[in-house]
UniProtKB/TrEMBL annotation:
Membrane-protein topology: Single-pass membrane protein
Subcellular localization: Membrane
Protein known as: Down syndrome cell adhesion molecule-like protein Dscam2
Keywords: Cell adhesion, Disulfide bond, Immunoglobulin domain, Membrane, Signal, Transmembrane, Transmembrane helix
GO biological process, any: cell adhesion
PANTHER family: CYTOKINE RECEPTOR (PTHR46957)
Cross-referenced Gene3D superfamilies: Immunoglobulins
Main location: membrane
Organism of provenance: Araneus ventricosus
Signal sequence coordinates: none
Record field: transmembrane: 355-378
Domain of life: Eukaryota
Length: 388
């Protein structure tokens, strides 16, 4: 019997006459490719690479050994083991930490599979930096008003020099903006902000190495809130054929009013009459140029109306609804369709044309069917009588 052995990427045996062929798994036959090393701080180096050639992997790559040592040192390589558990999702990179400051290192990478480790890559050298990026500042609010927010920060870590700061801010509905500041500027006020609005902030320090770890995001708001609606007595002055809507009775909530939208209708009608003062996005006139009041003309004496007013400022909008009755022509005249003054009441169902018409049609159909049934029954009874 003859036995032949061969190293390859599989492990199996087969028989042919008196021959046994055995093929064994082999360790990777080639080194990792495109090994690169880059210092990212005084004590950290980032290493990246690509897997060995496909035809030299000889099975599934289980992981990598990343070796490093000081250049010129007689010490052996120190190895960091990375298991490629993610398979195709594994990313060929790692960080070597706790290195010496401003020191040159030699780095190699080896792949391994179930059989063992393959050949190492060529050595690459890299020198750690003289300094690290600055640490994370601590950010806090110093003041707020309707259009500005003041900030200050502390740089607690002093080992690494700071060349400046970058302050990031955004309105809750906007995009991030950045402001670059010098190393001596440890406070800053952002002006021309939206009144009564929420903002987010964070700051990061930088030096010749790069930007450091940013501070935690700080959330706060400018002073002010959405408009506050007045009561009906302050809001309306009513006579027989008109009503004055006093827009200046609204409280601005600490943020200037930018616009109003007014609409009204008779209590028994469905269609609203729209009166707009400015636009809801601040396209209207400023508060001192807005009309103090809106006059609703051509009203019917002794009639109930419903009024809706929406007030806008930069902090938001507020809706308010009122019911009122115009003065009657004479003191003895009763208002048309009176309603409870505290809550709006719709037209009674039995007077609503949207209900009356379908109900009348349905009733007519039912009556017609009853008459038809009666006629049929009468004729049938008459025929039965004649037959007897």
């Amino acid at each position: 019997m003859h036995i032949y052995e061969h190293d390859a990427c599989m492990h199996y045996a087969y028989y042919f006459d008196n021959f046994i062929f055995i093929i064994r798994i082999a360790a990777p036959g080639g080194p990792p490719q495109k090994v690169k090393a880059r210092a990212t701080g005084a004590h950290i180096v980032k290493v990246t690479w690509k897997p060995p050639r496909k035809d030299l992997q000889f099975g599934l790559i289980k992981g990598y050994y990343v070796g490093y040592k000081e250049v010129g040192s007689k010490d052996t390589f120190i190895y960091k083991t990375l298991n490629a558990k993610g398979g195709e999702n594994f990313i060929e990179e790692t960080q070597l930490t706790d290195l010496k400051k401003f020191t040159e290192y030699a780095i190699i990478v080896q792949a391994f599979n179930a059989k063992g480790a393959g050949p190492p890559s060529d050595q690459v050298t890299v020198k750690t930096l003289q300094n690290d990026p600055p640490g994370s500042p601590v950010l806090k609010v110093t003041f707020t008003n309707q259009t500005a927010i003041g900030l200050s920060w502390d740089q607690t870590e002093t080992e690494n020099p700071v060349q400046g700061y970058i302050l990031y801010h955004k309105w809750d509905m906007g995009d991030w903006q950045e402001t670059e500041l010098s190393a001596t500027e440890m406070e800053y006020a952002l002006n021309d902000l939206k009144c009564g609005s929420r903002y987010q902030f964070y700051v990061t320090a930088f030096n010749s190495v790069g930007r450091g770890v940013p501070s935690d995001i700080l959330r706060t708001k400018t002073d002010g809130r959405a408009p506050v609606a007045p009561d009906k007595q302050s809001m309306l002055t009513i006579n027989q054929t008109s009503a004055a809507v006093h827009l200046d009775a609204w409280h601005d909530g600490g943020c200037p009013l930018t616009s109003f939208a007014v609409r009204y209708r008779q209590q028994r009608q469905q269609v609203w009459n729209l009166v707009t003062e400015g636009g809801p996005e601040g396209a209207g006139r400023s508060h001192d140029r807005l009309r103090n009041q809106v006059i609703l003309d051509d009203l019917i004496p002794g009639t109930w109306y419903r009024l809706q007013v929406t007030a806008h400022n930069e902090a938001g909008s507020t809706d308010a609804e009122y019911t009122f009755v115009t003065n009657p022509i004479s003191p003895d005249s009763a208002p048309v369709y009176p309603v409870n003054d505290d809550s709006a009441q719709e037209l009674p169902l039995y007077l609503d044309i949207n209900i009356l018409v379908p109900a009348a049609v349905s009733l007519a159909v039912v009556i017609a069917l009853v008459i038809l049934v009666c006629v049929i029954m009468y004729k049938r009874n008459a025929q039965d009588t004649n037959q007897t």
